[in-house]
Amino acid sequence: MFLRRGRGATGVASLFVLAVAVVATTAVLAGCAGGVPGLPGFSSGPTATPSPTGSAGLGDIPPGFIECEGEPPKDGELVADVDLTKLTAPDPPGFERAYGYMEDNPVEGASEGQYWVPEDQLDFLDVASINVYPQMELGPLSVTCNEISWREIIDRIDKYHEINGAEIIEETTRSSVAGMPAVREEVSLPRSGYDYVGWWIFGRGQLAHVYCQWTSEAARQELVDACDTLAATIVVE
Prior knowledge:
By secondary structure, this protein is of the alpha+beta class. The chain has helices at 150-164, 217-233, and strands at 2-5, 13-16, 43-44, 76-78, 87-88, 95-98, 101-103, 112-118, 127-133, 147-149, 167-177, 180-189, 194-202, 207-214, 235-236. Strand 1 (2-5) and strand 2 (13-16) form a beta hairpin.
């Protein structure tokens, strides 16, 4: 994802903000939950420690599941009925809030962003970010019996890769973040010379992209760790 820094003392600068990484798990949720069969090319992440409320996965599982009606998809994943524009996360350790950045190459129309930079930032292009798309310009994914098909999710991410020219570096992992199906990936963008790690998080007609980018191998691990923290501490108010 390209980002552009807003006009300030240093003028306007462009940057390619790349996306987010973290270890995650498939959340076990109440409602019309069926089995989630494996999908070629994907692997399930390790199991996270249950939260004090007894739910598993990354972040707090918000309320919002409704009684099941209809036939769920055979490869479905439960999705909470929440507003992703209310998604928040605490500052990752060693990072501070940053302003003047914006998404310059959106995949689903207009987005709302939150940004963090390392306190010892090596390059102003080293950024951690959460971008939320209140509406999905390519069209919302179908929700049947509170579930979204993994095949639809994968097909949509393939379209995002067509938009940004991404090439997969690390095997894609499917999981759940704060009650929504999520896909983690580390990709390279050869046309821009950047790599990023991130999570695509799918809500009901909304999308969140938690992602981190770096400009040198020296900065990579710090950004990856920051994304681990962001994805693990996300909540939807």
